[in-house]
Amino acid sequence: MSERIEIKALKNGPYLIASSAIFTDTEGNEKTVDGKMVALCRCGHSANKPFCDGMHQKNNFQCDATTVSLPVVG
How confident is the model at residue 26, as a pLDDT? Predict the structure, then answer.
């Protein structure tokens, strides 16, 4: 069975990725996030993009929940 990664979009909240992750910024710098869960901004108001800082609650962000399962490539 192939490995998959699951991305959950919480109702009125961020994207949650249950994994460690490596992000590359616009300047090509890589940042590794280790842990059990990574929360990514979905509302566009975070001061710490791409990560969620809870601003969706203060800005009354509204959106449905969904889950996407993607194959791990590489």
Answer: 83
pLDDT at 24: 85
pTM higher than the cut 0.85: no
Whole-angstrom CA distances from 13 to 4, 27, 29, 72 are 22, 28, 27, 24
Residue from 13, 22, 23, 17 nearest 4 by CA = 17
Sequential DSSP letters for 1-63: ---EEEEEE-TTS-EEESS-EEEE-TTS-EEEE-SS-EEE-SSS--TTTTB--SHHHHTT---
**Residues of the chain predicted below pLDDT 50:** 1
